[in-house]
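Tip: read the tokens left to right.
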């Protein structure tokens, strides 16, 4: 057998598995069963190791959020995916969006909840209203449509710098609440 034929067959098998997995994950997301977010690593026996992973949640025909990862290890039996090189876009009412990138994370495919982490520098979460939030960790709660962290946080925008510990961001109301140790610095106009 030639190497090109083996590659062609391997790619076909991988694409077929990705299609079946994508269908199964979509069906699972629509079941709306509440399950806790699993933060333990996926076992070595993951159902699939997917390069170029894309997962989105649709509600009433509209995409509510989209998660893309350079690589994902998916364990369908646990409704869990471990993600590397993550990009997320959350879509709110009236065109409000929130975008962020993270080194890695995890996704609960049954609930739509996910956790995102950066190993070194804080990740940046950019809101359509011009504010940028920086923190090393964020957790999305799909049912409440909130982003939360208990880690240090910095918010920049419109001449303000707000620092503190912990954050609750609500996409439906476009509000950010720093939970503790709040400090505000106002930039003087030039």
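Filled-in amino acids:
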């Amino acid at each position: 057998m030639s190497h090109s034929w083996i590659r062609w067959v391997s790619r076909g098998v991988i694409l077929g598995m990705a299609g079946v997995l994508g269908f199964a994950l979509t069906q699972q997301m629509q079941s709306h069963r509440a399950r806790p977010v699993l933060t333990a690593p996926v076992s070595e026996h993951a159902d699939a190791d997917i390069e170029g992973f894309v997962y989105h949640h649709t509600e009433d025909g509209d995409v509510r959020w989209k998660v893309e990862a350079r690589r994902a290890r998916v364990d369908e039996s646990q409704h869990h995916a471990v993600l590397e090189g993550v990009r997320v876009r959350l879509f709110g009412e009236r065109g409000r969006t929130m975008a962020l990138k993270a080194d890695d994370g995890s996704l609960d495919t049954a609930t739509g909840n996910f956790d995102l982490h950066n190993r070194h520098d804080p990740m940046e979460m950019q809101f359509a209203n011009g504010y940028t939030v920086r923190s090393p960790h964020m957790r999305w709660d799909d049912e409440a449509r909130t982003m939360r962290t208990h880690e240090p946080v910095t918010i920049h925008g419109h001449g303000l710098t707000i620092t503190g510990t912990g954050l609750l961001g609500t996409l439906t109301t476009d509000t950010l609440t720093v939970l503790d140790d709040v400090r505000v610095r106002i930039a003087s106009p030039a």
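The chain has one domain: 3-186. The longest strand covers residues 62-75.
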